[in-house]
Amino acid sequence: MTARPAPLRLLALLPIAALGLAGCSAAAPDDEATDDGGIVLVASTNVYGDLAETIGGDRVEVTSLIDNPDQDPHEFEADARAQLALSQADVVVENGGGYDDFIDTMLSAADNGDATVINAVDLSGKDTGEGELNEHVWYDYPTVGKVVDAIADALSEADPDGADTYRANADELQDGLSALEDRVAALEPSGEGKTVTITEPVPLYLLEALGLEDVTPEEFSEAIEEDTDVPPAVLQETLDLYSADPKPIALVQNEQTGGPQTDQVIAAAEAAGVTVIGVTETLPAGTHYLDWQAGVVDELEAALQG
User: Fold this and answer.
1) What is the Cα–Cα distance from 70 to 47, expressed in whole angstroms?
2) Which of 65, 156, 217, 224 sits CB 3.0–4.6 Å from 163 for a disulfide?
3) How distant is the alpha carbon of residue 181 from its chain centre?
4) Which CATH number fits domain 188-305: 3.40.50.1980, 3.40.50.1100, 3.40.50.300, 3.30.365.10?
């Protein structure tokens, strides 16, 4: 699945002096942390930022540029504060696959060629250049495991004295990811032969790992993802899925985006007694990656058993 034509908006690259302007979107890195020689890591979203914080602990200053759970991540406006953060970064973690291209643009503008850049899509091996790419790889646990290892390696190279800490924390994360993968594998037989619908392709990797078949018309999910109108015939085809026999076991919808057509589909699913499960592109407030994903799996398991 391709990314939106303009997935994350990039403001004109303002000079660093413009930092005094109000309305900046990204948190600036902690000046004290950057001045004392500590390791600075910048992540495009708080999904990767949370992984980095778990691995780095107190030894690493982490800045997540996109961290508002109430905002559509595609409406993020990269600004001078984001540019400053990237100019100071020792390690950068991006999703890739067209999702957060502003990272590479701003990193180049910041003239920070020394930063180690970790690209999750590149690590996933899913971008073969053939066909469409679903760039939402943080719902693919094997890929997240590769990102965890890459973060630990990059931090260890930048800070050899902390290598043992980084590896121990990464290993603990890997144990949690393995437990999630085991749960999903155990549930897969119960998903075989069952269908599901989506509003956007955000959770597809997880749904596929559960053995579920997405029957949503591709034109519908693409239109919602690209924030364009769904053709009436396609909308009706989608609505008709909830009166089919058998019906989908769930509608999995992106809670950070929406509109009248999405609301219409959600209402049809609820009226038909189909479970509606909300997912997000960024971490909800007050949660960590493993807990967040365990909650999503819990809801999908309940739908499978219902």
Assistant:
1) 14
2) 156
3) 18
4) 3.40.50.1980
The overall longest dimension of the chain from CA atoms, in Å, is 64
∠ CA 94-142-278, rounded to 5°: 75
Name which of 176, 137, 130 is nearest 291 in CA terms: 176
In the CATH scheme, what architecture does the domain 9-180 have? 3-Layer(aba) Sandwich (3.40)
* Nearest C-alpha neighbor of 233 from the set 223, 225, 243, 247: 223
**Rounded CA separation 84/106 (Å):** 9
Q: How far apart are CA 286 and CA 244, in angstroms?
A: 39
Report the distance separating Cα 2 and Cα 121, nearest Å. 12
Locate 51 and state its tokens.
């992984």
Topology alike, domains 9-180 and 188-305: yes
Count of Cβ atoms closer than 10 Å to residue 125 Cβ: 11
pLDDT tens for the 306 residues of the chain, in order: 444 434 454 444 444 333 322 223 344 444 433 445 689 999 999 999 999 999 999 999 999 999 887 777 777 888 888 999 999 999 999 999 999 999 999 999 988 999 999 999 999 999 877 778 999 999 999 999 999 999 999 999 999 999 999 999 999 999 999 999 999 999 999 999 999 999 999 999 999 999 999 999 999 999 998 889 999 999 999 999 999 999 999 999 999 988 999 999 999 999 999 999 999 999 999 999 999 999 999 999 999 998
Domain ranges across the chain: 9-180, 188-305
